[in-house]
Specification:
Length: 125
């Protein structure tokens, strides 16, 4: 039979931390990712893919006050994973796409994939 995958819906209405101000979206995203980590069963994986840079010509691309998008390494650090996790992928990936009226452009994605090891796998490490 095919591989069984269990999907859990995470509550995206994470409370905003005091003093978050204009960066509240990042705080909420961090809380959602920490909840995702706690929802991964032993032997399961967490995949986080996000924009690694603003698309060329976007309003954020020209806004010096806009905070930079997090790298996969920054996302990994924010997860503060306990023992028993293995990083399988932690990289920036470029891809070419047809973008609006600009023709072909290169977009960058931040890709992080981590594996929660089973307890019997930990005994072998």
């Amino acid at each position: 039979m095919g591989e069984h995958r269990q999907h859990r819906r995470l509550n995206s209405s994470a409370p905003e931390e005091p003093g978050a101000g204009e960066h509240a979206g990042r705080v909420a995203a961090g809380e959602i990712l920490r909840r995702a980590v706690s929802a991964v069963a032993p032997g399961g994986r967490l995949l986080v893919v996000g924009h690694g840079a603003f698309p060329p010509g976007s309003s954020h691309d020209h806004d010096r006050a806009a905070p930079p998008l997090p790298t996969s390494g920054e996302v990994l650090a924010s997860l503060d994973l306990p023992d028993g996790w293995t990083v399988e992928t932690n990289e920036s990936v470029d891809r070419e796409v047809e973008w609006r009226d600009q023709g072909t452009v290169t977009l960058t994605d931040a890709v992080l994939r981590v594996l929660r090891m089973r307890s019997n796998d930990l005994d072998m490490v």
